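pls design
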């Protein structure tokens, strides 16, 4: 099983930038690309969904009761005592 990839038709400016950046760090261009991919993946994994972020800041832990999710997102709150379906 091979762990290397080949990128074809890369812009020459991008390739020279990669070479310069890799040279400054002191690694090969391939290793530098691996590090960039890993960094991007780690950042993407930490990004919570908007609903998770909302629940974390305004959820039950903070004394706010969230409405139950409806079929298409959250139902609007009604203060009349009647639930609109």
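designed seq:
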């Amino acid at each position: 099983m091979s762990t290397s990839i080949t990128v074809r038709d890369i812009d020459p400016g991008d390739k020279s930038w990669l070479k310069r950046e890799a040279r400054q760090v002191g690694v090969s261009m391939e290793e530098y690309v691996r590090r960039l991919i890993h960094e991007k993946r780690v950042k993407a994994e930490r990004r919570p969904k908007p609903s998770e972020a909302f629940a974390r800041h305004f959820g039950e832990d903070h004394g706010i009761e969230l409405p139950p999710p409806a079929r298409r997102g959250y139902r609007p709150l009604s203060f009349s005592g009647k639930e609109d379906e």
